[in-house]
């Protein structure tokens, strides 16, 4: 059973709401400590427990702290709105674009994909493409080199993935593909 917000708010507390922001304060006299002139608590969003519950030596200190908290929440809301708008933008990938996915632990695996079809604003259809070693790029220890994609050598079945507005595609829980920049990619392996 979740406790309601009202259980935390002292009787006689004054509600201070920030206009158009998901934050509310309750101020009351007789702070938690004898040197506190006033105390207040802050609730953010729909939470039932206070985000903070502090005592203040003066009303001015309380007002300053509330102003800072309101500004912080305002900036957070602006950032969230901007990020949401960015997420909703369509990608700019084109058919024929080459995507690269570099991943691994203790070794670096490199997979290349080609965009073969655009589906709606956010989906793409990809096919795996083979890669080739760059001549004379093998490292002295013999377990690493640079590779480049071979866009005309597709293999496997086409598959669909969602592309972000930054042209990134989540391939697995541990890897993502991005637009290949045309430069050779580092790849390593262990016997």
Describe this structure in words.
- By secondary structure, the protein is α+β, with helices and mostly antiparallel strands.
- Helix content is 16%, strand content 43%.
- It has 1 helix and 11 strands.
- The protein has one helix at residues 59-88; strands spanning 14-17, 23-29, 38-44, 52-56, 98-103, 109-119, 123-133, 144-162, 169-172, 175-179, 185-188.
- The strands form 2 sheets. A 7-stranded antiparallel sheet has the order 9-10-5-6-7-8-11, with no helix packed on it.
- β9 (169-172) and β10 form a beta hairpin.
- The longest helix has 30 residues, at 59-88.
- It is elongated, with a radius of gyration of 28 Å.
Alpha carbon gyration radius: 28 Å
Overall outline: elongated
Class derived from helix and strand content: alpha+beta
What's the average pLDDT?
A: 92
Give a brief rundown of this model.
This protein has 191 residues and is of the alpha+beta class. It contains 1 helix and 11 strands.
Strand and helix layout:
Elements: E1 14-17, E2 23-29, E3 38-44, E4 52-56, H1 59-88, E5 98-103, E6 109-119, E7 123-133, E8 144-162, E9 169-172, E10 175-179, E11 185-188
Antiparallel strand pairs: 1-2, 2-3, 3-4, 5-6, 5-10, 6-7, 7-8, 8-11, 9-10
């Amino acid at each position: 059973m979740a406790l309601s917000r009202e259980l935390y708010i002292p009787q006689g507390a004054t509600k201070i709401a920030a206009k158009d922001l998901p934050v509310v304060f309750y101020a009351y006299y007789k702070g938690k400590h004898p040197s506190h002139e006033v105390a207040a608590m802050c609730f953010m969003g729909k939470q039932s427990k206070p985000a903070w519950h502090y005592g203040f030596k003066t009303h001015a200190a309380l007002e300053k702290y509330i102003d800072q908290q309101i500004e912080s929440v305002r900036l957070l809301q602006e950032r969230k709105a901007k990020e949401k708008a960015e997420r909703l933008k369509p990608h700019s990938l084109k058919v024929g674009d080459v995507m690269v996915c570099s991943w691994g632990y203790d070794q670096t695996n490199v997979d290349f994909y080609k965009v073969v079809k655009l589906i709606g604003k956010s989906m793409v259809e990809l096919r795996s493409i083979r890669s080739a070693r760059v001549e004379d790029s093998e490292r002295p220890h013999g377990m690493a080199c640079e590779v480049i994609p071979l866009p005309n050598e597709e293999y496997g079945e086409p598959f669909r993935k969602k592309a972000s507005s930054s042209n990134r595609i989540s391939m697995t829980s541990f890897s993502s593909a991005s637009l290949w920049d045309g430069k050779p990619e580092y790849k390593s392996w262990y016997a």
